[in-house]
Design a protein that fits this description.
The chain is of the alpha/beta class and 243 residues long. The chain is built from 11 helices and 10 strands. This is ABC-type branched-chain amino acid transport systems ATPase component.
Length: 243
Amino acid sequence: MLTISNLYAGYGKVEVLHGISLDIPKGRLVTLIGSNGAGKTTTMRAISGMLKPSSGSVRLNDQDITGFDAHRIARAGLAHSPEGRRVFASMTVTDNLLLGAFPRYVGARPKGDIKLDLEKALELFPRLKERRSQLAGTLSGGEQQMLAMARAVMLNPDVILLDEPSMGLAPILVEEVFRIITRLKSEGVTMLLVEQFAAAALNVADYGYVLENGSISVHGPAASLKTDPKVVAAYLGGAAAHN
């Protein structure tokens, strides 16, 4: 479904990713964990076209999308819910969601029933349903995070990238975000999740990769990573409360 091979990327002369490889099979939830500065967000940006890789490849559904512009990658079927939310503050919740479906309106993606999908998204995110006519900029941080996730879902994508969906949220909202991720997984949505709460991410994921200083140090089924002594010592000791 989504395959990243020997990917190098960075900013200017600073190389952040040193030849990483990831495989996200259809219908699976894969998580990428690591400390701050390890290169997780850079990985997501390089996959989604926000950053041009210097070498390596990104393939979606056997199509080489390496170096494509972000809008072209979205039209190919990859949705990115970015770190920092990036909602359209002066537009309503509903209009933000409909923008997520824009490639479907212009024929770049299968159109389907956008109105029905909008209602399904609002049912999945009940807080947004209550605020569907509200300006996105007036939402709380947690509500904006849910809006960014729901907007990605509205593309009806083949793969969703979720970059730090729980960042800055109160514990009760973190639980809500993971409830939604679990629901999407049960519906067969293919996802790559970058998450600060490693224990919570591994609890919901099928497979995991650990990124250290721009390289993959270990990977395997999520259940085995949860008991790997090095992973436990480095990433799970302070996250037990989020199991």
